[in-house]
Amino acid sequence: MQEFTDANRANWDERAGLHAARNGSGYDVGRYIQDPALLSEVVRFDVPRLGDIEGTRAVHLQCHIGTDTISLARLGARVTGLDFSSVAVAEARALAADAGDDVDFVESDVYAAADVLERGTFDLVYTGVGALCWLPSVSRWARVVAELLAPGGRLFIRESHPIVWAVDERIEGDIHLRFPYFETAEPLPWDEEESYVEVDRPLTATRTYSWNHGLGEIVTAVMDAGLTLTGLTEHDSLPWQAYPGQMIERPGGEWALDRLAGVMPLSYTLQAVKPG
After folding, report:
1. What is the rounded CA–CA span in Å between residue 15 and residue 9?
2. Pairing relation of β-strands 207-210 and 228-235?
3. Alpha helices, DSSP H only, in 149-233?
4. How many CB atoms neighbour CB 107 within 10 A?
5. Which sequence spans correspond to the domains of the chain?
6. Average pLDDT, the chain
7. Residue 75 dihedral angles phi and psi, to the nearest 5°
8. pTM for this model (two decimals)
9. Residue range 44-56: average pLDDT?
10. pLDDT of residue 172
């Protein structure tokens, strides 16, 4: 298992530097410095479901370079971002400092989050798009979430739908299910030079490993961890172009299927609370 983690960390270390470029490529992070009210597309999409988080103590797991983390802070939360990539944490700290946002960032594997953060003290545990697929066990992740939450605290996930990860986007012209929908012991290996946003150069740490988790498995893991499900919404869009040539871009950075509109969910928002 360690070899998979090491390969993924090397990949995300490299991505973090490219995504945080200040030349307009990657995440175009200069926007957050220029506009102190700017929210990331991911967080802005879910503002109606997040509601008022002013004054809450929040942790953003697998925060990458911190654009969503900073956005939560701009909505009034006191936020800690956590990521296993030292490069991502360094870039996130630099961006928050340059943008003038008061956010803490901690380097840690997500499974060790309850060991490096104060257990049972967070009003909100937040996870954004593209996080769960890098974890071999969704049940273990859910137990960590439950440990972090204070009584009455809330889990909030916006994620790509697991059906998306089961599709082989390399086959053009239609939607082709080729990969496991359910969690498997062994990961899927990938070897890709491209990132999911435009970057200055191809990746050199190209090898990664990922795991899918069915929606039922995710819901069950959350409930088995002692949390009460309070919301589950499936969406017909997601914030990246999963299937080039088969999608249309909507205002706000969301992408939806074009010719095949409505045939499958593309993302979901899940909420749960820890009984108080």
Report:
1. 10
2. unpaired
3. 162-165, 215-224
4. 16
5. 2-273
6. 97
7. -90, 0
8. 0.97
9. 97
10. 82
